[in-house]
Design brief:
- By secondary structure, the chain is of the alpha+beta class.
- The chain has two helices and three strands; from the N terminus they run βββαα.
- The radius of gyration is 13 Å and the shape is globular.
Length: 75
């Protein structure tokens, strides 16, 4: 089973200052073990959008290898 978890990062940009970005951390839970597979730290500045993606992907279970393509099509 894959879990898609919300991550939060802060960056300082020269023109705008502090920027908070949200991303996804993908872990696989199998036989009681947790293995981190992928980290995409800066998908959007919209927390609720990325939280929705995390819930949707956890429910639908897309393979992490396809995640970048899926996100590119959505954005």
């Amino acid at each position: 089973m894959y879990l898609y978890l919300l991550t939060e990062s802060e960056f300082v940009l020269p023109d705008t200052g502090l920027c908070r970005c949200f991303g996804l951390r993908v872990v696989r839970v199998q036989k009681g073990r947790v293995e981190e597979l992928l980290l995409l730290p800066d998908i959007s500045a919209d927390r609720s959008f990325v939280m929705h993606l995390a819930q949707l992907f956890t429910r639908l279970q897309p393979a992490p290898v396809h995640l970048r393509d899926i996100l590119q099509d959505m954005l």
